[in-house]
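Input (structure):
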């Protein structure tokens, strides 16, 4: 049996210092991912530091400029239920409500959500199968194994996993910022830079370093925010991770798209922004389905499906189209 100590942090600076100094210490917030990883022997911290009592980290603030500041310890359900979050950025509310279950969302924090690790079955298997993310240098069992749920964009031979967070997809579409405090002070990380592609270091999911504590998530004001939608397709209708999902936000000029923000989940090691499609969608009528499809198609030129997940290419195109149509209808 793996034994560990448990303590509660009361002071931010001390919590950061303790994490920076001890590579065997893990922060715990809701515990809905960390405890699972410990049960599967993927994470074996010797010390678990509960950060739930740290001050001022659960607030949900509607900023005067139209943006949001959401504390890292705010619970997913509380954020989803917040009237201003719903009004300003429906895509955030929907990405939260389509995730996990009501009970899990009551416990799970915003910071923990964007730090959660991949659901690749080989990574989480108790038997410690070849997995470069879990044990660097051991291989990737999914590359030529069961890879129906894996990436079609941006993968490497070292890792073909996807990021499981729904919230992350919405935050990537909105170019949100993650506010992190570490031993050298505070910094802001653009969400599209927060999570990484696997390359030859798949053990690193994101740019967080030892001693870094996520303080909050800031969403800048976006003209596209109110006309936004999160569409998630999964193998069953609830309590399941995305096969493919899309966060879409649009600003319309009459019937035409003035600007669009589109990110996909379930297709890469990080939320995948459809930047080519976003550029091509400018000025296109949402009623001109062929033109919208053509624009979306530009972002799928780089798709590299694996042996079992070719279906994600066509599914991804359709989910992106539908998400844009729903978002556009909300203007
Ligand atoms: C059955 C099940 C189904 C799920 N389905 C979905 C789903 O469909 N979509 C989805 O998006 N998610 C889903 N989840 C994942 C769930 O949303 C996450 O487990 C949860 O958001 C993690 O938050 P937490 O507070 O419990 O994190 P914890 O488990 O406490 O922590 C997770 C990780 O984050 C680190 N951490 C936590 N807070 C901070 C911080 N402030 N700064 C730095 N590091 C921090 C911890 O050290 C740990 O490494 C599911 C989970 C389960 C168990
Ligand atoms: S896809 Fe990544 S997480 Fe899954 S087995 Fe391969 S290396 Fe491990």
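Output (sequence):
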């Amino acid at each position: 049996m793996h034994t560990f100590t448990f303590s509660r942090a009361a002071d931010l600076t001390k919590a950061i210092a303790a994490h920076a100094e001890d590579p065997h210490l893990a922060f715990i917030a809701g515990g809905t991912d960390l405890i699972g990883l410990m049960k599967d022997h993927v994470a074996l911290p010797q010390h678990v530091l509960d950060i739930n009592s740290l001050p001022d980290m659960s607030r949900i603030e509607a900023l005067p400029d139209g943006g949001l500041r959401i504390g890292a310890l705010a619970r997913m359900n509380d954020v989803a239920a917040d009237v201003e979050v719903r009004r300003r950025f429906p895509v955030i509310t929907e990405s939260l409500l389509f995730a996990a279950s009501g009970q899990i969302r009551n416990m799970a924090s915003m910071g923990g959500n964007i730090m959660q690790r991949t659901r690749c079955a080989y990574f989480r298997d108790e038997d410690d199968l070849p997995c470069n993310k879990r044990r660097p240098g051991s291989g990737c069992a999914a590359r030529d194994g069961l890879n129906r749920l894996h990436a079609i964009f941006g993968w490497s031979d070292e890792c073909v996993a996807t990021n499981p967070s729904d919230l992350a997809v919405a935050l990537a579409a909105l170019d949100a910022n993650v506010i992190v405090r570490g031993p050298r002070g505070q910094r802001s990380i653009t969400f599209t830079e927060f999570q990484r592609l696997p390359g030859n270091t798949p053990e690193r999911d994101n740019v967080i370093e030892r001693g870094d504590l996520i303080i909050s998530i800031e969403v800048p004001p976006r003209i596209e925010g109110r006309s936004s939608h999160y569409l998630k397709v999964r193998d069953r209708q609830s309590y399941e991770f995305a096969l493919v999902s899309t966060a879409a936000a649009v600003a319309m000029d009459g019937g035409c798209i003035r600007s669009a923000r589109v990110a996909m989940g379930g297709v890469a090691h990080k939320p995948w922004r459809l930047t080519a499609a976003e550029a091509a969608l400018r000025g296109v009528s949402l009623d001109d389905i062929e033109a919208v499809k053509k624009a979306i198609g530009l972002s799928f030129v780089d798709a590299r499906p694996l042996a079992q997940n070719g279906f994600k290419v066509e599914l991804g195109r359709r989910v992106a189209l539908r998400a844009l149509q729903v978002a556009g209808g909300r203007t």
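Notes: The longest strand covers residues 244-253. The chain has 13 helices and twelve strands.
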